[in-house]
Amino acid sequence: MNSKQTQRRLQTLLSQLILSKPLQLTTTLASSVLNNNNDKRNNVINNDSSNDDKNHQEESSDKSEIPESKKEEFKLDVNQIIEDLENERLSPSQALDIAHDIIETENQYEQGRQFIFSILPYLRDPVNINVNNNMMEEGISEQDNDDTRRAYRLVGLSYHKNHQFQQALPWFKKAAHNSPSILDWFNLCSTAAQISDHHLPNNNKDEQHLSSIHLKLALHAFQQLEELHKASEFKLKPSFWIQLYYFIISLMNGKHYHQAFELLNRLKLAYKRARFTDPSYLEEIGLMSFDSFLSLTLLLFKRVNRLEQGLEFLNQMKQNVDEAGKKTIDQIIQEYQ
User: Fold this and answer.
1) 178 neighbors 145 (Cβ within 8 angstroms)
2) What is the pLDDT of residues 206-229, one digit of tens each?
């Protein structure tokens, strides 16, 4: 590979990380990074049709058919929809399908939020349920909880898509409360991680303390996510390593570089154990492509003006990867020398 080809390849790797654009698994936030790599790994992150695992989608795979009269444009007759909910002509999940289209397809964030707020009284609140002797109120079904959590996720997503992370946070927090879903906890940890001092209106000590609280929340939520993966023997999708990869980027977005480097070292060990860098093999064991890992590594080191250390970091990895991986690392290092 000549120098020009190497330069183009490197630029392609670095351009794969376009920050602060949210991706969703259906309507659930999956990350704050748009990765344009063409390998199959991207299908795990942003292919809405992927239904390999129930936890891989925020919405049910057997999504209810929305009546045509309800889908036409988004000039909503809210009163009619509420009447249909009251008379059970429209289910809460169908009403939320409408909200999803308003937010996700039409990008009408405020209209979508107001619509959700108008139907929330017809949904059960899993956070504020009446509890007696640790027994749930009679008549509250799992579907009731799922619909309400979905409403909270949609409100959070409507804020997150507009980069209003602080406003999104309490809604993702409500959705994650006692949630068995790794996606709820990922929404919470990745959003909290992206809130840093520069997101706060004034850079004073009180607000710096608030940023620290957000970081603690992010790390706590990620710990909960990891516990769910452990309980499933790491069989959930997206895999723990994919979610770790995107959480590192969220920490980087929030300028929490110390924590980002700690987790990057942990991710590095996963690639060392894998040894082989073939994209299909890495996908099979739940890791992002090797190119994606190298891109993230270089970008993180460049963010803190430590590119030389970043190149040394990659050079050390050569001892634990296959020939193809060594060749890729050598090409990148040579380009910077």
Assistant:
1) no
2) 555 556 899 999 999 999 999 999
